[in-house]
Amino acid sequence: MFSVLRNLGWFFRREKKRYMIGLVLLIVVGVLELLPPRLLGNAIDDIVRGSITGTSLVRYIGLIVLLLLIIYWLSYIWMHKLFGGSNLVERLLRSRFMNHLMVMTPSFFERNRTGDLMARATNDIRAVSATVGFGMLTLVDSTVYLSVVLLAMGFLVSWKLTLAAVLPLPMIAVAMIFYGRAIHDRYSLAQDAFGDMNDQVLESVSGVRVIRAYVQERLDEKRFSDITEDVYRKNMAVARVDAFFEPTIRLFVGMSYIIGLTYGIYLVFRNQITLGDLVSFNMYLGMIVWPMFAIGELINIMQRGNASLERIDETVNTRPDVQDAVSPVQIKDPADIEFKNVTFRYPTSTIDNLSGVSLSLSQGQTLGIVGRTGSGKSTLLKQLLHEYPTGSGDILFSGVPIEQIALDRLHSWMGYVPQEQILFSKTVRQNIQFGLDNADDDTILEAISAAAFRSDLVTLSDGLDTLVGERGVSLSGGQKQRVSLSRAFISNPDILILDDALSAVDARTEAQIIENIRQERAGKTTLISTHRLSAVEHADLIIVLDNGLITERGTHQELLNQGGWYREQYERQQVENKLTE
């Protein structure tokens, strides 16, 4: 049950001063709270004996008020320390979780659903943070504070009365162990269901246009209703066990009260304790009610925290498929790129997605990659990003294998525009500045002009300050592509990778963008995969892929002379263009 605290040992060692102060003051406050009942009992005995005076009464009242003020101030300090630690560990865990996601490879996100990751980053981290705040409070109160109160009852009043009164209490521990196991199992299932619901909401919101287009609103509502019903049932299963905690504790504490009061009155009549002792004892008995509840809360919160920490650790302890180089080789610039007999297969694939690919590209050259859908064009480009473990063969930058180059260094050379553009829910300006922090408007407009987006900019309601909506929903496909191109152009990368990034623009706009690339990127390497062959006519080398194999290679004219797939496709596209015109 307490494995969650053991696994958070790194945090307690780091914040040991905070927790030493908080826990010591919590214990001190617990001891000081024993004094007012004892003072009240003494005052009652003085009244019974008739020895009370005005001066002694004022002294009793003054001492009780002073103790209450001290307890108030010390309670403020320990609460600030303990619950401040709860907020601190939540921030640390969330930062660590997010940083880990940033280094994970695509295969990780193929295995893990976004909704479930969001559930772990919110509910699970919050449950763990509660264990180092409220959990520590219940741990101390259910052990140290309970022991102190029981000792006070035994030493200051009567051991016989104390032992009789606590006879029902061990049954609480037995019940809590049983409830704790049930809470752990049911809470894990409830959190998994919450992750499923998150995933469903994300899919429904992001695909709302498709849902409406196919008139699937009612079906989607039914699907969401079913999944929320599942979340409800599993959380109710947790609540049903949770609801047993308080009645169970109240039952056994009530039995303690009955025994304490009945036996206490008997001892008063036998003159073994005084009336003041009995009053103090009943006040102490009332003080152990919270520690008894704290036992239940402790088991509840520790089991929740343990289940949540297991889910978080499952994510954080997953190692990325691609590890950074231990002793990376330093390269100033990627002078040339070379593929040597590269064969690659995706982790989920049963066939080779690239087979024996060999090519070389010097700095400043342009490579065109064409082929049928699914031929391996995107797969080839992604090899340069090193997102997956390399297969057989070598990928070299300036003669250095890609595995020996630091990932940050490698990615700093790249400007990547994928097939599916990812825009953030910010303005056009902020999306483009993502490629170059704090770029001024003149630099942004230059990048926009290179992407042939300047004429579209004036049609947007607020120009550069227009909000693009979630994933660029307020922009057309061609506009999203050109904003993504602007983001890549503004960073002026050593290697520009365009993965079918011109598919949503018309032929005239494409020709303008290609001409801008030729002028602006003289001396820098560019790789373009496309279905429209006019986009790569100018390339220094064009390769044709088919099922991961290079079937043709050469310049535009050389490929036309070969009379293969490239020529056939080029002539078909020329006819289509003439018909369109």
From TrEMBL:
Domain ABC transporter: from-to ranges: 337-572
Domain (ABC transmembrane type-1): residue spans on this chain: 21-304
Q: Which UniProt keywords apply?
A: ATP-binding, Cell membrane, Membrane, Nucleotide-binding, Transmembrane, Transmembrane helix, Transport
User: Which compartments does it reside in?
Assistant: Cell membrane
What GO cellular component entries does it have? plasma membrane
- The answer to whether the entry has keyword rRNA-binding is no
The membrane spanning regions, by residue number, are 57-78, 127-155, 161-179, 249-269, 281-301
**Annotated SUPFAM superfamilies:** ABC transporter transmembrane region, P-loop containing nucleoside triphosphate hydrolases
Give the Gene Ontology MF terms in alphabetical order. ABC-type oligopeptide transporter activity; ATP binding; ATP hydrolysis activity
The membrane topology of this protein is: Multi-pass membrane protein
PROSITE patterns cross-referenced by the UniProt entry: ABC_TM1F, ABC_TRANSPORTER_1, ABC_TRANSPORTER_2
Question: Which PANTHER family has this protein been placed in?
Answer: ATP-BINDING CASSETTE SUB-FAMILY B MEMBER 10, MITOCHONDRIAL, ATP-DEPENDENT PERMEASE MDL1, MITOCHONDRIAL
What's the name of the protein?
A: Multidrug ABC transporter permease/ATP-binding protein
Q: Which organism is it from?
A: Paenibacillus donghaensis
Q: Name the lineage.
A: Bacteria, Bacillati, Bacillota, Bacilli, Bacillales
